Amino acid sequence: MSEQIRLTKGLDIPISGAASQTIAKTVLADVIAIKPTNFRALVPKLVVKEGDLVLAGDPLFVDKNHPQVCFCSPCSGSVEAIVRGDKRKLLEVRVKADSEVKYRKAKPLSLSSASKEQIASFLMQMGLWPMIMQRPYGIIANAEDAPKSIFISAMNTAPLAADLDFALKGRFIDVQAGVDTLAKLTEGGVHFSMNYFTSPSSEFRKLRSVIFHDFEGKHPAGNVGIQINHISPINKGEVVWTVDLLSVATIGKAVREGIYDASRLVAVTGPAAVNPSYVKAYQGSPISAFSDFFTKKENLRFISGNVLTGEKVGLDGYMDFFDDQISILNEGDYYETFGWCKPFRCKKFSFSHSYWSWLIGNGKKYKMDTNVNGGARAFVVSDVYSKVLPMDIYPVHLLKACIAGDLEKMENLGIYEVLPEDFALCEFVDPSKNNIQQIISDGIDLMLKEMA
Amino acid sequence: MGLRKLFDNLSPAFNKGGKFSALGSLFEAIESFVYVPKTTTIKGAHVRDSIDLKRTMTVVMIALVPAILFGMYNIGYQTNLAGHMSMTFGQMLWFGFLKILPMYLVSYIVGLFFECMFAQIRHEEVNEGYFVTGLIIPLIMPVTTPLWMLALAVAFAVVIGKEVFGGTGMNIWNPALLARAFLFFAYPKQMSGDSVWVAGVDAYSGATPLSQAANGSVLYSPTDMFLGFIPGSIGETSTLAILIGAVILIWTGVGSWKVMLSCVAGALLIGLLGDVPCWYQLIMGGFAFGCVFMATDPVTGAQTEAGKWIYGFLIGAFAVCLRLFNPGYPEGMMLSILLMNTFAPLIDHIIVNRNIKKRLKRAQTV
User: Fold this and answer.
1) Cα–Cα dist B344/B348, whole Å
2) Which helix (DSSP H) or strand (DSSP E) does residue A165 occupy?
3) CA atoms within a 13 Å half-sphere pointing along the CA-CB vector of B259
4) Where in chain A are the domains?
5) b vs e for A232-257, b when ≥16 Cβ sit within 10 Å of the residue's Cβ?
6) B-chain residues within 8 Å CB-CB of A312?
7) Three-state SS for A281?
């Protein structure tokens, strides 16, 4: 009933600090922030001003080009601050939260009778539409498109990522409702990818109206982009949509109950996290609310998301829109005498065989930090990148096309099929220390600009 | 630590606007040689692998050590043999060491001078690529090469071979081989023939196995050729020492086993056409050295995995073709690798185009 796809390329980075499957506490944040910068190419338009009172589910800003697409407050309270950057670019809308969340109630959606347009309009009003991402480019889906199909990954292989079976325990009905909603938006069906080893025991195996796929392999096998490449690769002119599983549950709950419930289990992880575990928190929670998990404040890096693709937000920052993980690392701003020529460097991990870590075995976890471990160089080594990119793509050639800004080549070499996250491991293993995700991201921005 | 303090104290003078800012790249190179820099990730992945190019290059340098040591010994051994002297093992090694040391001094001083100069002009960090190139260049020269000639060849290789293209990672031809080719065509008398391979004995003619093969029959035993007790360029004679290096390169994944294997296959296949047994081709002349240390250069070779098979195979095949069918040059490895360096981008182009065609076809069939 499902297709098994085995990927041999990839790497599970053995970093320490996985979250134990316990819920340590509930964080009710004082202030919560929603950031328009979490969305590629979004031009936001504010619909609130400082001091306004909002309920959870009330819009804070909308997409200027599609004003019906709302971005809603995860909690009830008053708009505390509107943070702008250079050229008055909108960076954050901060909401001071009430002690108890009050929801804006909408009429639940009756799926059986609703048309595609009605569903889309419901999702937009509820602030759920931004959770549907379009590929190519990784931008918010356009409701006027007819996507080839919709892809959901229920397999999270990123370093120390939240275990979705644990994080969404008891939310089967929400996920099913979410899937049913999405299925109405496409003719091509909803593809649902699971981990081959855990799928038989997962309750999501019982979902109806999805097409199951079982993936076996190391990271990035759980990335939806990699999965699409193996299930039904994106061709020029085609559009597919992707939704992460947490968002599917959020959509499902909204459809069933008519509320925007942005609470989630957040995995607090990383080598510098004390007793890493799960926390019940709201979307956009401040990092400072997780202060139980670190003992010092200096020389730590606080990342919203995982260590490969997450964003450095700092102690006074807020979690990103989609994230259900915080990673805490020690900063690596120290000198290491003759580090590169030490024959043994047992506390450092390397994917390459020029150190010994590949012989030490699978069990060992490393307390990694943010040191670059070298200086930036031109691309020299040719075969490491494809070892961690299980896609039918030539990574170095695509990267060089992006650097050169050669649109035709980028298109020919598969820019439509990738997002920066798919190249995160290439960046990790790169001996030349290039910022590979940035190169891909710039390439996508260029495509967006030129193809518009 | 005292040294760290010294670097910290000196650093402002070498930074932009400092008194010695013209030497900034050199200072940075020395500092990052001693200490892994304290830079932290700014964009993208927050953690990074502990591999860097310095480590990669170090592996290649370690892999070269057996060939260097045997090369030193063989310099003394050949002189001893030719001059009917009675040197001990230690004396032969010392004799070789004294011959090779000035060559290395010249190679590194000249090469690193240009590397630093160009790094400074470009405001980049000094690249570690030359550490390997500089180690290889003397190894592929006859021991009698005059030092001024070596200096000229190194300058040519670094400036014309590498820096004009944009430095390490951008060059088309293997710089070490370019140094060899430069001397081969500019000063053929000092680079080939029978009289250049033995140091310290005047007007001694020591024919290499290859020149013997070109004249009909090889007089050296296969064992001597495999172990390396034959005249030839300094580092190329011992297939055994090179094999140890090959094992290190393949074990660490730094050198491509695909290129090495297909190169051997290509040589064996064409070798069947020759008078000497085809496997002689593997242990004569510079084949083994070129196959293990030069053909596997990731910058100048084919970059696609499928392309590596074709690239390696053609290097082996063309090298033996030149040996067998060209009366002009007994050795073909150098020219063969340079030729395939030139064509590597074409091979990659064909392989990558297949991927592009596949993508286009996929789009049409939907």
Assistant:
1) 6
2) helix A164-167
3) 34
4) 3-28+113-257, 385-451
5) bbbbeebbbbbbbbbbbbbbbbbbbe
6) 46
7) strand
- Given a cut of 90, whether residue B295 has pLDDT beyond it is yes
Torsion of CA A249, A254, A257, A260, to 10 degrees: 110
Determine whether the interchain pair B47/A394 forms a contact, defined as Cβ–Cβ distance below 8 Å: no
Which residue intervals of chain B are DSSP H helices? 2-14, 24-34, 53-82, 89-122, 129-139, 147-156, 175-186, 188-191, 209-214, 222-227, 239-252, 257-271, 280-283, 287-289, 305-325, 333-365
* Residue B5 touches chain A, beta carbons under 8 Å: no
B362: Cα separation from own chain's centroid: 42
Query: In this predicted structure, what is the pLDDT of residue B126?
Result: 80
Q: Are B323 and B331 in contact (CB under 8 A)?
A: yes
The model's pLDDT over A228-246, given as tens digits with 9 standing for 90+, comes to 999 999 998 899 999 999 9
In chain B, the percentage of residues whose pLDDT exceeds 70 is 98
Percent of chain B whose predicted confidence (pLDDT) is above 90? 54
Tokens of B174: 């293997």
Question: Angle at the Cα of A232 (from A228 to A235), degrees rounded to 5?
Answer: 95
Q: A3-28+113-257, what's its fold?
A: Rossmann fold (3.40.50)
Phi and psi for B145 in degrees, rounded to 5?
-55, 125
Do residue A335 and residue B38 have CB atoms under 8 angstroms apart?
A: yes
Domain count, chain B: 1
Q: Do A336 and B362 touch (CB under 8 A)?
A: no
Residues 6+ apart with CB under 8 A from A381: A431, A432, B53, B56, B298
Residue by residue, DSSP assigns B208-244 as -HHHHHHTT---S-HHHHHHT-S-SSTTTS-HHHHHH
Q: Which of A76, A37, A70, A34 is nearest to A54 (CA)?
A: A76
Q: Does any domain span residue B53? A: no
- Nearest to B75, CA basis, from B203, B221, B233: B233
Q: For residues A116, A121, A127 and A133, what is the CA-based torsion angle, rounded to 10 degrees?
A: 40
Q: Does B167 touch chain A (CB under 8 A)?
A: yes
The verdict on a CB contact (< 8 Å) between A413 and B355 is: yes
The percentage of residues in chain A with a pLDDT greater than 70, rounded to a whole number, is: 99
Given its phi and psi angles, is residue A114 left (phi above 0), alpha (psi -120 to 50 degrees) or beta? beta
Is the CB of B190 inside 8 Å of chain A's CB atoms?
no
Give me the residue from A235, A237, A348 closest to B50, CB to CB: A348
Identify whether B249 is part of a domain: yes
Give the confidence band of A43 by pLDDT, cuts at 50, 70, 90. Answer: very high
pLDDT digits (tens, 9 = 90+) for A325-359: 999 999 988 887 777 777 777 788 888 888 887 77
Indicate the DSSP class of residue A126.
Answer: T
Structure-token pair, residue A304? 């919203």
Provide the CB-side half-sphere exposure for A71 (13 A, CA). 30
* Tokens coding B40: 């932290």
Q: What is the DSSP string of B14-34?
A: HSTTSTTGGGHHHHHHHHHHH
Predicted pLDDT at A90? 95
- Residue B165 DSSP code: G
Which residues, 6 or more positions from A176, have their beta carbon under 8 angstroms from its beta carbon? A207, A208, A252
To the nearest whole number, what is the mean pLDDT of chain A? 92
Question: Containing domain of residue B91, as a range?
Answer: 60-202+212-352
Asked if residue B172 is part of any domain, the answer here is yes
- CB of B365 within 8 Å of a chain A CB? The answer is no
Distance, in Å, from the CA atom of A149 to the CA atom of A242, rounded to the nearest integer, reads 9
B255 found inside a domain: yes
Among the partner residues A349, A372, A432, nearest to B41 by beta-carbon distance:
A372
Are the CB atoms for A323 and A316 separated by under 8 Å? no
In this prediction, residue A150 carries a pLDDT of 97
Bridge-based pairing state of the strands A277-282 and A20-26 = parallel
Residues B139, B245: contact at Cβ < 8 Å?
no
